[in-house]
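Encode chain A's predicted structure.
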Amino acid sequence: MELDVVELSRLQFAMTAMYHFLFVPLTLGLSIIVAIMETVYVMTGRPIWRQMTKFWGTLFGINFVLGVATGITMEFQFGMNWAYYSHYVGDIFGAPLAIEGLMAFFLEATFVGLFFFGWDKLTRLQHLVVAWLVAIGSNFSALWILIANGWMQHPVGAEFNPDTMRMEMTSFFDVLFNEVAQAKFVHTVSAGYVTASFFVLGVSAWYLLKGRHIELAKRSITIAASFGLAASLSVVLLGDESGYAASHTQRMKLAAIEAMWETHDAPAPFTVVGFPDQDARETHFAVEIPWVMGLIGTRSLTEEIPGINELVAQSEENIRRGIIAYDALMTIQAERENTPEVARTVFEETKEDLGYGFLLLRYLDDPREATDAQIVKAAWDTVPTVWPLFWAFRIMVGLGVMFIAVMGFFFYRSSFKGQSYPRWALWAAVAIIPTPWIAAEMGWFVAEYGRQPWTVEGILPTAMSVSHLSVADLLITLTGFIAFYTVLFIIEMGLMLKYIRKGPYLDVAETEAWQARHEHRLRTHDGRGPFAPAGASAASALDTPPNATPAE
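Encoded structure for chain A:
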């Protein structure tokens, strides 16, 4: 990779974004799981569920704080490293981010404080409402950010104003209900639920292996397995929706993911494995499953999915029309209010391809002077590097299938085998804790790298979007970010491991008081029978497992 301003800016933003997303999925998922646990506590009154809520809530809090710190840094980069992008599309992109900050972030940040410090100041029901508001705020925050990102993938509800040289919003409704944004949101939050479920499963499995906090661990595995199985199935189904959206909004990305060089007769096959060769423009040793890609991408047996070569030819036509649009735009900029009507008419007819004309600015100052060879070269620039997309997608999908199998196994053991788990399965649960993060990062890599060479699909090339910085400026800040984030990562891991080793706070007095009330209810139950003292002792034996303290 050439160390120029564009590539260094991309590298810096990619590093901060992917680092930030180490925290986001766990925040999304743990907020829901903690709220579920507190709901059970309020419904049953059992102290064990309060202990679970506090324990997993503490880990959520650590992760939340680190996520906020890295997210703020990332948003500042839009002004620092991507100034022209912020100027060009700020009216549209800035609106969802502003709403996220004013509405969702303030909601979750406010109620996070009440969640941690309101246990003894709020009633059970009030504190439960707070827990759910934290969860809703966290997920609502993701919605607005993904609406902004979805617009970059599929820019709708906006048009270019040739007089101001900026994109302007024409329909907030279209931006809000952008099909790509909605598909990304449900897919991303489901991935977060899977991540948190595997985290809870793995930590709980470690407790069982160590013989600690048995009742908390078993109950946590039951919650994680049930929630995680539903989330794992959702990720696969909602990922299919993202693929369908890409088939008509980002066709080049879909073709690159599949390393589909030529257009196949419908329905297209799915390439399970292969070795894409971008120079030869073919995939070596490809193993294909007939029809599958056509069904996923078009949901029909008759609609074709265009290949890379066909899409490049279309891009070449778009670039030629973009040159015409650029020429009309320059006339409008030069003449202003005296612009001939014919120039505005030509621009209106060709403005959809203006972004393709901008691709030529990478090679010369005036796209109108481009040669045929430069046009062809710019057309091939619309093809992202295929092999990393091809393999990142398959790693993500392979892990997704594994998630379903693992969660299905633990759900079965929790529901039908009396919460008994083989030691090999518990060790496996600990070992695979990192895998949901790997899948999530692969998913974001596919989404963002697959959009290149565009910052905003079909409208603004990445090469035009950067600020006027020097390579030295970027190298210094990149080094600073790496050092700062490394320290934050060490702090995060240290705190998480510290509180996992420490385990939950076991309120023995509260637990014994609840046990006494519970046995009293059994002894005095309507005076008829089978629930009297013998029943109480039996219940007590069931509630307190062998070798467990009363708090457990």
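Residues 214-249 form the longest helix (36 residues).
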